[in-house]
Amino acid sequence: MKTLIQGGMIFQNSEFQTRDILLDDGIIAQIGPHIDPTQADQIIAVSGQTVLPGLVDVHVHFRDPGQTDKETVKTGSEASAHGGYTTVCAMPNVTPVPNTPDKLRQMINYNDEQGVISVKQFAPVTYDEHGDQLVDFDGMKKAGAVAFSNDGVGIQTAKTMYDAMTSIAKTGLPLAAHVEDHALMNGGVMNEGSASNKLGLKGAPEVAETSQLARDLELARVTGVHYHVCHVSTARSVELIRRAKADGVNVTAEVTPHHLLLDDSMIQADDPMYKMNPPLRTRKDREALLAGLLDGTIDMIATDHAPHTSADKGHSFNDAAFGITGIETAFPLLYTQLVKTKKVTLSQLLKWMSSAPTAKFNLSNENEIKIGNHANFSIWDLNAPHQIATKDMKSKGHNSPFLGDQVDAQNLMTFANGKLIYQDQ
Questions:
Q1: What is the pLDDT of residue 107?
Q2: 3-class DSSP state for residue 163?
Q3: CA torsion, ordered 76, 77, 79, 82, to nearest 10 deg
Q4: According to its UniProt record, which residues of this chain constitute the active site (predicted)?
Q5: Is 377 annotated as contributing to ligand binding?
Q6: 374 in a labelled binding site
Q7: From the candidates 20, 304, 312, 408, which is the catalytic residue?
Q8: N or C: which end of the chain has fewer CB within 10 A?
């Protein structure tokens, strides 16, 4: 089956080029300005639309198994395709935790069966993501783990983290850390500061993040592990990572769209849609996060897609669940608020959302639009103003503070592993 994608604008080498793409059984066979249409069995005309490489997210929560009322691998991967993603890495905080090589292998097979895109799988660091019993790191690598993480729970004991880093360094895989000292959180539900005082809510101080980060960076320096910092949220964290990189520490870092675009001053009422962990920090922190992306301190953007039911979010800020969705809204929001406003270029955004996570996590480069690769790309209308609305979402979770926001980018279709798996209706 030969399919001709005709007249799209491919963004390559920092510029738009009008090109046709010929797929032969899902593999890119030709790329050129005028491919003979008579050799195609099917023609998809996309004149004036933009063809972007498949996006990559190294931090998602698909809740499956254990909390399938919130999300499943199937719905989460369908939501990812809607957002233009063709590869994601799922965190292991599911029930049961895939804490042995056999369980992880079963999880990976399940992801392959249920996912409409490539769903890679994290293995946990400790046996049940709590305590100090370490998993079989070498066995987990052989079973297919993409990396290791106890995301959602900071590893509280320095000795446990040191031992984990020492062993994981031998595997060559990344250790992705949620940095949070529980003893310093003070039961906080949002950032500690003037906004929390105004709303009368308990605040979580930034030192709960930065103190554990400082510890881990020193341990990473000693052990040589590839240490990846999840969802960086403070200016001080950016500075600590910057210094560690200058000191030769093998550290990478991610930031979420919500920490780039929102801050605690925007929380004007008891609205649990703004409740996530780490919390939204100050405007100064938000600006430092963007500066960290621009100077290379932060390597990539990851969504921390965390769907919840309306019941879980239908409480006060104090009692509602932490977390928001993000996989469907990330690119439209960032394109509209950062690229269109000329704060960053489209080339930079695609690096942070595709090529950088691919390179840093040693993933397949199949998301690159080049001859010989499977089709892993999406086609966008970058001039299609519309509001973010639940009716358009494929995820089971609709817990987003961005509902109602105006965005300019709309995904028309996504190809993954050579197949058309999302098309706008």
A1: 99
A2: helix
A3: 170
A4: 304
A5: no
A6: no
A7: 304
A8: C
